[in-house]
Amino acid sequence: MTTSVRQARPAQPTLEMVAEVAGVSRATVSRVVNGSTKVSPEIVAAVTKAIGELNYVPNRAARSLASRQTEAVALVVPEDMTRFFGDPYFAAVVQGITRRLDQSDYTLNLLVASSDPRHKTLRYLRTGNVDGALIISHHTGDDFVAELETTMPVVFGGRPSNADDLDAYFVDVDNAAGAETGTQRLLDIGRRRIGSIAGAGDMPAGIDRLTGFARTLERAGLPTDAVELADFTAAGGAAATRRLLERYPDLDGLFVASDLMATGAVDVLREFGRSVPGDVAIVGFDDSPAATSGPVALTTVSQPSEEMGYAMADVLLRRLAGDESMPHRTLMPTRLVLRDSA
Amino acid sequence: MTTSVRQARPAQPTLEMVAEVAGVSRATVSRVVNGSTKVSPEIVAAVTKAIGELNYVPNRAARSLASRQTEAVALVVPEDMTRFFGDPYFAAVVQGITRRLDQSDYTLNLLVASSDPRHKTLRYLRTGNVDGALIISHHTGDDFVAELETTMPVVFGGRPSNADDLDAYFVDVDNAAGAETGTQRLLDIGRRRIGSIAGAGDMPAGIDRLTGFARTLERAGLPTDAVELADFTAAGGAAATRRLLERYPDLDGLFVASDLMATGAVDVLREFGRSVPGDVAIVGFDDSPAATSGPVALTTVSQPSEEMGYAMADVLLRRLAGDESMPHRTLMPTRLVLRDSA
DNA sequence: TTGTAGGCGTTATCAT
DNA sequence: ATGATAACGCCTACAA
């Protein structure tokens, strides 16, 4: 009958014990553990051996207390997790983040930006619980994070929307360029009455993709009025498609700012008796699993989601390591993936 | 020119400083911070005031070092995050978990069970980095966690598949009962050639739902052979539906073990010229956003995903607080939500 | 009820 | 290059 499992944790070996086994001082063991160069090879060997024998693992709390660093970074995600994670794009980003972090000793603290961000979340971050922060998918108005950069290194996923965040670090794709490529594809296959379902206007990615779309059509001397906004969900994309179809029944091409929204568009189009890509060709954005989960495989502008997450973590880790030479913006390439819809 | 942001963290007030301001000893401050009853009201007031003035927040590392507890719990999710989070059900569960945790001082560490679980993940967990663990969506074969319960409190989301995990703590819904309700609905509206798309056979939820389905049909004296397995994704559901349709062209009812798979089923059905619910009525499971994101709103067996996450965290927290009176299994209710598909 | 003092496991500053 | 020896901020007997 163990009364309380909690206290029963078997005593872990300590630096001290390793030192004794290796016949050196704690300080020396600490040095080899932390990879100091100023230790003679023989001693390194002896210590390493002792560590192996005892199966020693540094105590995080003690290390953190003494070094004043936590070896933890926060992942701040928006409050509405269902919608956030509902988009495979984000899931992939997070996976990339963890992949990079797994190569380090850093831990990932999941922080859901509560509706009361000024208090709990911010306080937690400021209070020294983490060494740095990764912030994903923040909309305009999430300015509460602006000041954070003064406290600790922060890296954004996607260009921050705040105009004053000029010196924010972020990794993103060139959304405008990607949108141009996607829209151009529609032109290339002969479509001339092209519309777009754009992402919410409060997110830079949405704005930039719309810009690229419009720019391409203008260049071709075509009108850019067939645009509807949606919220990056399948349902939103479906609704926007209905509105668009009502206004422009002669639509023959559609550039959609996300694959998830595009799946909604496909549903509605077929519902209205339009074939894809026969009547209406569609180009999506993301190349997420959603692109191939629907009835018609989507031609889409692929962005390296997982790699973006990896890059985010990588930039943060480098900054934490003292490397301030990182460029503020890391732009990843997009590429057009041809499937059935366009 | 700040050379290094990292070290610049402003010195937080310490217990010692609070003690001085309040005119008491550190020990006393510690007592009121930790809510000891044996402190006189006046002193509590004085200390509380000092804490407020200094804006004192306990240092996690120090507390953890002294108390041998981390105030952190791990959230272990399966390696394939894209598929994991791609299912809105899980996103909701995680949201529920964070909601409960937000009411406590516990932090959530996101752990992706790597393909090498025996090493990194397990080592991390065992090495005292967290006080407890929440484990979600583990398949058969994830037995690496079985031994974990001997080290620290663990709570599973969904019944663990391991037969020997008799005394594991978990929160789940009564999947079999839910499936019965859903299948019964199909009978009630007059369907007689009913099939099912079941979840992967290596997950208890999938197995139990299939059991409920079969039981109901047997009770009605109907055959239970029209079953195809899928992997809980939309694409998987679509493929399974194709196979099913091929074998049983006369299908008029379909019980699908998840809404996500059901959306795939709807797509295929319409593609084959079958109307929903006209030709084939469909009942899903989960009542996730996927249920209403497609072309036809799904009648579905609703499970309280968010509440389940909340309950998981709640059980864990109670156990961490020393309350071992919690029941091992927490079963949440399902209910049938009537929409358009059946 | 309150205070004293030792210890938690590291890191970091000095000497040596 | 290595070793004492302080911190680091808090908890917790034990004493008063």
TrEMBL record, chains A, B:
Residues 14-57 form the HTH cro/C1-type domain. InterPro entries: Cro/C1-type_HTH, HTH_LacI, LacI/GalR-like_sensor, Lambda_DNA-bd_dom_sf, Peripla_BP_I. GO terms for molecular function: DNA-binding transcription factor activity; transcription cis-regulatory region binding. The keyword Aminoacyl-tRNA synthetase does not apply. Residues 13-67 form the HTH lacI-type domain. Keywords: DNA-binding, Transcription, Transcription regulation. Transmembrane segments: none annotated. Gene3D superfamilies: 3.40.50.2300, lambda repressor-like DNA-binding domains. This is LacI family transcriptional regulator.
